[in-house]
Design a protein that fits this description.
The protein is 21% helix and 31% strand. The chain is built from five helices and 13 strands. The longest helix is centred in the N-terminal third of the chain and has 19 residues. By secondary structure, the chain is an alpha+beta fold.
Length: 193
Amino acid sequence: MSTMQTRAPTTWEDVLRMPDDGNRYEFIGGRLYMTPAPVTRHQRVLRRIWSALVRILMDSGRGEVFSAPLLVEFPGTGDRVQPDLLFVSNERRSIIGEKQILGAPDLVVEILSPTTAHRDRGIKLDLYARHGVRQYWIVDPVEDVVDVWRFADEPGHERFSGELPVRPGPERLGLIDLAEVFSRHLDQWESED
């Protein structure tokens, strides 16, 4: 009888050699984190925020909005994450690589789930602040609020429950109606699961 020994990945290259199991992996501070597939509520909230950001930021020609799975690497650190949504302005477009984002996006959006909430509010908040992300949104689909941390252009923290101003830089570019984002009423494109 034989046993198989496995060892925890210690580098991102170790992670890349792992079998593709459909989960999202992140590597922060030399530790591997796995994020299981999101639930339908998470996906609906994500889709609504994505649509609003595309309308406000992409359609106006200010940059590109991306969604997971897409790797963001902070060069020189070994840290790699896969945020739910992110925005890269035209001014930072040089960080958009063939396969991943190589540097700090202007805006990072994470939608909380029970398995990621502690990490999103802790080590990822610190990671984004240290590496030059201009703004970080934590979307809470249980409390129906969005916490916004600004690390540039008047640094600070605010919590929003009505209208969410979109300002990944110094000026406000639009508003997102959070009642629509968090609505549990299904529109014509959504169905009951």
